[in-house]
Amino acid sequence: MPIINIKLADPMPSRQKLDEIAVKITDIMVNDLGKKPERVVINFDEIRSDATYFGGKSVQAMKEGK
Q1: What 3-state class would DSSP assign to 29?
Q2: Which residues form the signal peptide (predicted)?
Q3: Nearest Cα to 50, choosing from 42, 58, 38?
Q4: Sign of the CA dihedral 23, 27, 30, 33?
Q5: What domains appear along the chain, each with residue ranges and CATH number?
Q6: Nearest residue to 29 via CA among 4, 49, 54, 46
Q7: Within its chain, how far is the Cα of 23 from the centroid?
Q8: CA gap 2, 16 in Å, rounded
Q9: pLDDT tens, per residue, the chain with 66 residues
């Protein structure tokens, strides 16, 4: 059973977009690895952009062009 965790900085995509992504990832697991679709687990986690840093700069600051 593959368990796939995807972390995205806020804001999260729409529910419709998350559904589309989940279907595509499930298809890859089924078609390329032979997994059963009902056993593929995908979890989207939202992380705060103001609490995530690259090289000492927050993702929020980078989005704001600072």
Answers
A1: helix
A2: none
A3: 58
A4: negative
A5: 3-65 (3.30.429.10)
A6: 4
A7: 13
A8: 22
A9: 999 999 998 999 999 999 999 999 999 999 999 999 999 999 999 999 889 999 999 988 998 988
What amino acid is encoded at 29 in this protein?
A: M
Beta-strand pair 3-9/41-47? parallel
pTM: 0.82
Q: Which spans in 1-66 are helix H? A: 15-33, 59-63
Instruction: Give the number of C-alpha atoms closer than 13 A to the C-alpha of residue 28, restricted to the C-beta side.
Output: 9
**β-bridge partners, 5:** 43
Residue 58 parent element (H or E): strand 57-58
